[in-house]
Amino acid sequence: MADSYRTIMKDGLWENNGVLCQILGMCPTMAMTTSATNGLGMGLATAFVMATSNLLIAALRGYITQEVRIPVYILIIAAMVTFVDLTLNAYMHELYKVLGLFIPLIVSNCLPLARAEIYASKEPVLPAFLDGLFMGIGFTCALTVIGAMREIVGSGTLFSDAHLLLGPVFKFMEMQVLPKDTGILLLVLPPGGFLATGLLLTAKRILDIRAGKPIRLAGAHSV
Q1: What's the half-sphere exposure (Cβ side, CA atoms, 13 Å) at 38?
Q2: Which of 153, 157, 196, 205 has the fewest CB atoms within 10 Å, measured from its CB?
Q3: What is the domain count for the chain?
Q4: DSSP string, 145-163
Q5: Does 161 map to a domain?
Q6: 132 exposed, middle or buried (CB, 10 Å; 0-12, 13-18, 19+)?
């Protein structure tokens, strides 16, 4: 049992990462990674939605018929997204003004629906919850790293406005890495999302080749 949980964790964080392996969730990956804080905020929102929707779908799978399963999954995911949307609007309004447009789009993100259909609908509650949680954390890590790359090179800062997401106590995370007005503006514009994502995908592939890992084909735990 412990080995299966370890596999779920490794798949979500690295081996079958939603961004780095499955190339899913590209809309928020490109649009919301202009800074590490934005990437972290969007990633955490998505991780919460994935973990809770997987848990609910696994718990209710015995009552959901094959014919209506997809609309029901989308309804459950949408309910969790609405909860996140209202919570951010109420308690983190400044961050919500940045992320708000893209929070509802989590409903149409392929990753939560894919994990619901492929994993949560076939597995017990705890493994399904862990799958959603670690897939979400892996997604968060990818968005945060891409956001950090773009922010450092494009703006010369790191975790700017982190206090809006994590509270005033985390203001120490906000750093000026490069001198002001020396960044490459292209990195914080839309093309920068493709460049940073491509570099990260290349880095992962190089690491996999050096580790002697074969290219993963679509299977039970991938889309």
Answers
A1: 24
A2: 205
A3: 1
A4: HHHHHHHHHHHSEESTTHH
A5: yes
A6: buried
